[in-house]
Design brief:
Chain lengths: ~300, ~300
Amino acid sequence: MVGKPALLALDWGSTSLRAFLMDGAGAVLAERASEDGASRITGGAEAFEQALRRVAGEWLQPDLPVWACGMVGSQHGWREAPYAECPVALQELSRGAVRADGSEGLRVRIVPGVCWRSGQDGADVMRGEEIQVAGLLATQLSLAARCRIVLPGTHSKWVEVRDGRILSFRTFMTGELFAVLKQHSVLGRLMASSTTFHAEAFDEGLTRARMAAGRGLSGDLFSTRARVLLGQLQAEHSADYLSGLLVGHELAAALPATDADEPLALIGDPALCARYAHALQAFGRPAAAVAGNTAPQGLWALACA
Amino acid sequence: MVGKPALLALDWGSTSLRAFLMDGAGAVLAERASEDGASRITGGAEAFEQALRRVAGEWLQPDLPVWACGMVGSQHGWREAPYAECPVALQELSRGAVRADGSEGLRVRIVPGVCWRSGQDGADVMRGEEIQVAGLLATQLSLAARCRIVLPGTHSKWVEVRDGRILSFRTFMTGELFAVLKQHSVLGRLMASSTTFHAEAFDEGLTRARMAAGRGLSGDLFSTRARVLLGQLQAEHSADYLSGLLVGHELAAALPATDADEPLALIGDPALCARYAHALQAFGRPAAAVAGNTAPQGLWALACA
């Protein structure tokens, strides 16, 4: 039995736009994607509306609510949705949504990102990940009381959840560091273009980071090159070694801020989550849950709130 | 009184070639430079000889010894001078020099770099910095017994010296991280092209790194962006804030491996050394000595050994 469309949920990040047609029970009826990410759109509100119409087409109906999250709500997005401040209940994100109006009665709710400020040096922001968190909590209710949700990626987020609220979070630039070091640094020069994942090299980097995080990340990175020059590491494995180093330093810095019995959950790309799940296991803190893209469920929860 | 030429010393790195004509007392009589760095030369030994003849010209005389250090001795240099292994007495570098012969009786001694291997995870290499160390120790004898020499730069080196020997060393990719993050990451997008150094922003980054190094570098970098978005940092100061973060994390990781009363010395570009001297002061470990390029003195000491 196929439900009737009740919500159009838009996961609208910097580099892509994903649209999910959902029914009244929160099930995804159909999904479409385009490369019209918010950072690629120039021309203001009209250009955003056109990008939405291109991907959604006949899905757009006068009475169908449209909710969007991600960079579409940034300063340079369709319309800015100012950050909600930690601690924040996920229902509050619903109330913080701003309205972007288009032609022919089109109305889009854009939900806010979340910022964290605490004391002298607390300073962090996210846009989109908070909706992934809302989606996971909506489907795995036991986690809402207390958990740490890890969203690995370009800018990995570690989100502290207590009683259905986001208390704090931290961003680790793991994915972007890997990309810029591979493409633009001396470390990348030795990296052969290998498409096979060398688990052993990844583990070597992971172990090195786990055993001596006090040495600091910038004091560990160069070992990627030195070990190749000294014959301890094969050049074609060095990218996976570097990945292990970076993920390992992220875990070594992030895990001590969690409680030893705090459940950990992963949300994101399956291959990347598998890598993190393996790393968490190696650090003695296996993940309690792993999920793919939970943005549609998050927007659905907010639209119902 | 001007001495007679007794040595032609070549500081031949990846991107530049610097030639120093020196007398028998170790004084520099004249200096020339070119952009014929070792990584820019293709065509093998002959091309290296031509680059040397272009910069040295009439300085080259049948009886004048020529000594070179740096990437000219790497696998892709004029001729490979295999790494000497820690612990290494600086006089041993002299014995490890290899000979590159050119036309018309030209002979060049190329000194080895140094590698450090220790236990499971010790792995580091340098080429050129060990000669800077030799040069400093030749001119500041009191440091030879015990000191830590810091060579800030693209790949900062922290070199542990005991009884005139290099015991160990560590590389921090601070300078290259700054460059790739500024030019290629999301952090650089907010950085205005400002030529003025904002000491206060640098200090903010430094303090953040000093107070909470346990958070890890990759967990601190994103604050450069978040603080701008949250109005805590001006975009045009964010490059200097990032510089402070990176230098601070280097110091926070490197200083605990030193003894509290171990003298620290800086060698390198004066502006960069001034920044590091300021940072060391903030960490309560002021530098005991600061020097510019000491490569010619180092090569002179080795040629005499």
